[in-house]
From TrEMBL:
Organism of provenance: Solimonas terrae
GO molecular function: alkanesulfonate monooxygenase activity
Keyword Glycoprotein attached: no
SUPFAM superfamilies in alphabetical order: Bacterial luciferase-like (SSF51679)
Keyword vocabulary terms for this entry: Flavoprotein, FMN, Monooxygenase, Oxidoreductase
Pfam families assigned: Bac_luciferase
GO biological process: alkanesulfonate catabolic process
UniProt domain Luciferase-like: residue ranges: 25-252
Keyword Oxidoreductase attributed: yes
Protein's name in the database: LLM class flavin-dependent oxidoreductase
Signal sequence, start to end: none
Amino acid sequence: MMTQLTFGYLYDFRNPLQWRRPWAELYAEIIDFAAYTETLGFDGAWVPEHHGADDGYMPTPMIALAALAARTKTIKLGSAIALAPLYHPVRFAEECAVLDHLSNGRLEMAIAIGYRRREAEAYGVDFTKRGGRTDEFLEIVTRLWKGETVTFAGRHFDLKDASIVQAPTRGRIPLYVGGFNEKAIARTAKYGDGYFGNLDIVDLYLEKLRAAGKDASCARIRIQGLFTVVARDPARAMDELAPYFLHVNNTYGEWLNEDKAATGIGDGGLLKPMSLDAFKASGILSILTPDQAIAMLGSMLAKAPVEHFMMMLPPGLPPARFRPYAEVFANDVMPAFR
């Protein structure tokens, strides 16, 4: 028996043009799928955020999370991630507090500053000041969740006597902060309850926790494995799933290369648009047998105290066709980490 590890899926609610379907039908099927994963024993349903995407990438995670809260009972719910600079902190804190009550205390949020200049500009936010704006946002949000009445005079927000009547019953909604460079991870260590992101950043996060005077042995870490799938026949799964994951690769590749310096990721770590054949041969999409997945996850746990591993429902693929993959993971992989 290995160290306990929980698992969930990310739902971006995209509707790519080449597979476009009625929006209401697509949304209902994704929510059905998330509710089904709860019955299989998955522990998380997470919603990300982007704006102005041609494929309809979810721009309003709070609304999607409210729908998920109404259809589930035990699974953890949250953003992964919400773009903090695009929110007013009081509104964000209020909406999260209400969502936490609607879900009976199951909300766990993750935020980051974002890396697309055009998203900030569409909201009238200065892209170059999103770090400082997020620092003030985090201070205000966490104080409101504690039940404080907040008066705040900063460079980005000026508040008088802000408060929340529906303060979270836990005193604070768990808040994970993502990022890839030193400034971002220092922010995570200062304000966050944990880190959400990539395994290769974990050592830096633990270092920043210690620098902030916090106990690194209590670190809470969530890792995204969006291009990880488990199947009993990986070759067949590659043929079926690669076109949908290629869409994920190519859209992220385009976005990440718009403002490379803003990502905090070196050129070697950025996704790049490519053909289907090149994608299949690239190794980016990791389709593992159950035994291979158990070994991979065990190796990950040996390197870092990861508490949750997040995969994704690929956009464009009808959710019902992905159910067998979720079932294989639940039946053949998850028991090794319970």
